Amino acid sequence: MLSDSQTMAVHGETNNPALLHHFATEEQQKDASNFGMWIFLGTEVMFFGGLFCAYLIYRGWYFGDFGAASKSIDATLGATNTAVLICSSLTVVLAIYAAQTARRGLLLLMLALTMLFGCAFLGIKGVEYKQKFDEHHVPGASFSFDHVPIPGHPDQYANPRHAQIFFALYFIMTGLHALHMIIGLGIFTWLFWMAWKGRFTPEYDTPLEIGGLYWHFVDIVWIYLFPLLYLIDRHP
Amino acid sequence: MSDHSKSSPLKTYFAVWAALLLGTFITYKAAYIELGVFNSAVALIIATAKALIVALFFMHLKGASEKLLKVVVISTIFFLFILLALSMADYGTRRWS
After folding, report:
1. For residue A234, what is the nearest residue in chain B, using CA coordinates?
2. Which of A53, A93, A202, B45 is buried deepest, with most CB atoms within 10 A?
3. What whole-number distance in Å separates Cα of residue B52 and Cα of residue B41?
4. CB B76 to CB A75 under 8 A?
């Protein structure tokens, strides 16, 4: 059922070793890979969606307690991390641009910068987690959140049990996001290795684009986590 | 990758990057201003705008030729909407004690 031009492509008209035999053209192969990644990201949206749903329900129930708990997190670190992730997304698209214009040096530089930003994000996250451990804000036996006023109601204290649920959601959501970052760093290490070996050309950059889609998705998750976890009830 | 986006994607990329940083700055600053119920609304609207431009320009959803791709993206958003809307409809209207 192949047309003439497709048959020619199968028989090596383009002479691309990356073209697998069950695909008619490079374009078709690329579309299939892209499509698969987007379906995976769809399942990821539902995966994180359940957590966002849990957050919304508890935020509705324990409105003031969540505000008080959120205020104890360093929002400046969160904002810095947002900027770091945005910069890493820029370097990802620049890496793909470099591959498509056959600039190997720029490609390697951009992939390295992406990993550097990724590590910076995890480092800042580590500083933030350490603060929470020092303040005994980690859910568990040593959790303590006593006599913290509810924003807007200085005469009322937040219920520590309710605040604990905020911190549980905070650690699960940011932890799961950090896990995605670590997996992303693994993928980009592999992409860097492939780029080092010169496997990416203007004709073939599919792994870069697929890896990039994943990275941008993790960025989008953070774009929502930042205001929901760090910025609620900040105003005096 | 179609040809028109190859002509000069750099300008778009840097513009999107600047817009994302600006959006982050505005979200951060707006959180410290008393807006009542609109604080959350402003934060979520900016977050959605940022997510949208990341998807459109960085993830190349704009200019994607595959119709199937659009079906996947739209159905993802639709199912997320079902998850959130039906759950909130339940928890919002029922008396849990």
Report:
1. B32
2. A93
3. 16
4. no
Tally of structural domains, chain A:
1
pLDDT tens digits for range B77-95: 999 999 999 999 998 888 7
Q: Are residues B38 and B79 in the same domain?
A: no
| Residues B96 and B56 grouped into a single domain | no
The CATH number covering residue A103 comes to 1.20.120.80
Query: Does residue A32 lie in a domain region?
Result: no
Q: Are A34 and B39 within 8 A, CB to CB? A: no
Residue type, A203: E
Mutation target for B interface from A220, A221, A233: give the one with most B CBs within 10 A. Answer: A220
**Interval A132-150: pLDDT, tens:** 999 999 999 999 999 899 9
Greater model confidence, A145 or A1: A145
Domain that residue B84 falls in: 64-97
Distances (CA, A) of A177 to A44, A122, A144, A226, B43: 11, 10, 25, 11, 20
Query: What number is the ipTM of this complex?
Result: 0.90
**Rounded to 5°, angle at Cα A78 from A111 and A163:** 135
* Total-model pTM: 0.90
Subunit contact A93:B9, Cβ cutoff 8 A: yes
